[in-house]
Design a protein that fits this description.
alpha+beta; 11 helices; Pdz3 Domain; 3 domains; 441 residues
């Protein structure tokens, strides 16, 4: 427990350090390119720990790692202007706008770069995500069952999207808790209109439909001496049903065996194009220190793993980042309009936990998470909130439209509102993280 906490803390410091460095590097490079004197480039806030000076700039690492900043000459509107052409406020508004903009842009470019490199050398995802949205199973008393859906149904329209893939469906459901979704379903050659209302579940109160993709349970290995081998199951057999119901998602078979608590079940098995039935009684066994009901089989997990040409890798990275960006904006909009629970927001504790889990899962998962966090940081900083880059850009746009500088008093009030907002947000997300950690449901 303590080791896991320490790992999570170290990983999140490294991740956020990378994000912040890249963000501030964007401001720094843009400022330098326009001839602005940069006085400080700091990774972290507070007391200076390490530093060196080159030219006008003091490059430093400071004590508090959750942040960073670039201090430019003449960037304080309330300060005394020296008439130096290298001051930030001496530059035209369009140059100042670009200097501020480059921070979020660098975070977005980092997200694109990381995914491109990952997809070039190790493009990996569950195979079902690239397949048509065919249902493999539906839970009892779930929104999907109440909508009249069943295993084998194929979704041919999902909201405005025709012939969606599972990856299209997944994100929409997660962000549509308690919102009605219209769809068309094909069953036995007939198309019917349906409506589904995902319910909010879990600590993040995200949308849950109770349906599963079509990923059949193809047996990979059979353990000698356990029930599956005793009834004659062999590798390559495909389990397509349990107790008379069609089940086309292999993880559901595992969970249904656990829920049965040792009750004998009848499996429908497909072998060589012929379907037959076998009765098997799970046995309680010890697995990695935990007792589980098992019949002694493992399933083949169908993953898409391949390297891609650079052009395809870039295209896939752009598409995924565009979709993730749209999801982020959609979630923020729904939270602000109270159509989605604010419990879905995570702070440093939640980010640390997710980062630690991704780190332990392996390099591909970790790179994907870092890319996603970088993208979200870039999008969040573009919001027109005082103190954030988006708020500074909003003031510059207003000043450009009215062709004069706003008064110092207005700018100070604007900043004060932003500081209060960010403090309240920080307290809320920290409280959110604590509640989700100690009271997950």
């Amino acid at each position: 427990m303590v080791g896991s906490f320490i790992t999570d803390a170290v990983v999140v410091v490294v991740v956020l350090g990378i994000m912040i460095f890249v963000h501030e590097l964007g401001h720094f490079m843009a400022a330098k390119s326009f001839g602005v004197r940069v006085l400080v480039f700091s990774l972290g806030f507070g007391k200076r720990l390490l530093h060196f000076t080159k030219g006008d700039t003091d490059y430093r690492i400071s004590a508090l790692p959750f942040g960073g900043y670039v201090k430019m000459a003449g960037d304080d509107p309330s300060g005394v202007r020296q008439g130096d052409p290298g001051e930030f406020l001496a530059k035209p508004r369009w140059q100042r706008f670009l200097i501020v903009l480059m921070g979020p842009v660098m975070n977005i470019l980092l997200a694109l770069f990381l995914l491109t490199c990952l997809y070039k050398f190790h493009f990996q995802k569950p195979a079902y995500e690239e397949q048509a949205a065919v249902l493999g199973d539906v839970e009892e008393d779930s929104p999907a069952e109440k909508a009249g859906l069943a295993a084998g149904d194929r979704i041919v329209r999902f909201e405005g999207l025709r012939n969606p893939k599972w990856e299209d469906v997944k994100f929409k459901v997660l962000t549509s808790a308690d919102e009605k979704i219209s769809l068309e379903v094909e069953r036995d050659g007939q198309v019917a209109n349906k409506s589904l209302t995902p319910r909010a579940e879990g600590p993040d109160r995200i949308g849950y439909a109770g349906w599963y993709p079509c990923a059949p349970g193809v047996i990979d290995t059979v353990e000698p001496g356990l029930p599956a081998s005793q009834v004659g199951l062999i590798p390559g057999d495909q389990i397509v049903g349990l107790d008379g119901r069609k089940v086309l998602y292999w993880l559901r078979i595992t969970s249904l065996l656990q829920n049965g608590k040792g009750k004998q079940v009848q499996l429908s098995v497909l072998r060589g194009g012929r379907e037959f039935q076998v009765s098997v009684k799970p046995r309680l066994t010890q697995v990695m220190g935990e007792k589980r009901w098992r019949i002694g089989i493992s399933f083949h997990s169908d993953m898409v793993v391949r390297s891609q040409p650079w052009r395809s890798a870039i295209t896939a990275a752009v598409q995924d980042n565009v979709r993730n960006c749209a999801v982020t904006v959609d979630v923020l909009g729904k939270i602000l309009s109270r159509r989605m629970s604010a419990r879905s927001l995570s702070g440093p504790i939640g980010i640390a936990q997710i980062s630690g889990e991704a780190y332990r899962a392996g390099l591909p998962e970790f790179v994907m998470l870092v890319s996603f966090i970088s993208l979200q940081l870039g999008v969040f900083n573009l919001l027109p909130i005082p103190v954030l880059d988006g708020g500074v850009m909003l003031l510059l746009l207003i000043e450009g439209l009215i062709r004069r500088d706003l008064s110092i008093e207005i700018k100070e009030r604007f900043v004060q509102v932003g500081v209060v907002f960010l403090l309240v947000l920080a307290v809320f997300v920290m409280y959110n993280d604590v509640v989700k950690t100690f009271r997950p449901y």
